[in-house]
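#help-structures

NK: newbie question. if I give both the sequence and a SMILES, will the prediction place the ligand too? trying with magnesium ion
OV: yes, paste both and it writes out the complex. here, I ran yours:
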Amino acid sequence: MTTATAPRAAARVVDAVKVYGGGDTAVRALDAVDVSFPAGRFTAIMGPSGSGKSTLMHCAAGLDTLTSGAAYIGDTELGALDDRRLTLLRRDRVGFVFQAFNLVPTLTVAENITLPLDLAGRHGDREWIDALIDVVGLRDRLHHRPSELSGGQQQRVAVARAFAGRPDVVFADEPTGNLDSRSGAEVLGLLGSAVREMDRTVVMVTHDPVAAGHADEVLFLADGRLVDRMEAPTADRVLDRLKAFEVRT
Ligand SMILES: Nc1ncnc2c1ncn2[C@@H]1O[C@H](COP(=O)(O)OP(=O)(O)OP(=O)(O)O)[C@@H](O)[C@H]1O
Ligand SMILES: [Mg+2]
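OV: that's the protein plus ligand as structure tokens.
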């Protein structure tokens, strides 16, 4: 349960700086970012190409390390973990959905969904996984291979896989970027119901105001900095805000 005053952060970064390269060619991809992703909420991250969205997500998720500052999953500071513990944390406490689905082509739908659990030697919660399979609507496709599915179906498998181990937080980097609008809407609906009906936490990078409209809050990045945020976004309000940024820059 979260308290009314200060919702628990499923993930957060504090004074996060990420510099790629060095010398004249150094790129400051994150420039002192403080952000908290509350548990039980759906947060979207928007901003122009190159603004640091993927970098923020990767550093918050333990896929990449910060140059300075700190990243936490729950109360665990990622910078304090050795490689082995970091690998275990990524496997057990974080879920990922990527633009390119990243399913294993030789495994069936059912095997793909439970892959993170199987790798961990965990049985997982059968009832939970069963419920997930119904939520993503894949019960009649469980023994198919990814190549036998549409893009939207493949991404629904990836969503089920991301939630299978009941991670603290699921990070999705442009999960609808390769989908037509109808399949995209289905995937966004799934992410939304995982948060609202299954008490999950989702952080999603997107370029699409319609996608961002599914979130509880939108964070706007520009040049590696958090420049704005919007509660209870709608696609129209997000679009207006993005236009306002373009005018200013
Ligand atoms: N591995 C890397 N090496 C060097 N520079 C990088 C690397 N990854 C990202 N950058 C740079 O860091 C900045 C932020 O990149 P990032 O990928 O986080 O942007 P983004 O907001 O996700 O963009 P997009 O919307 O195009 O995916 C960019 O200037 C990018 O060129
Ligand atoms: Mg990106």
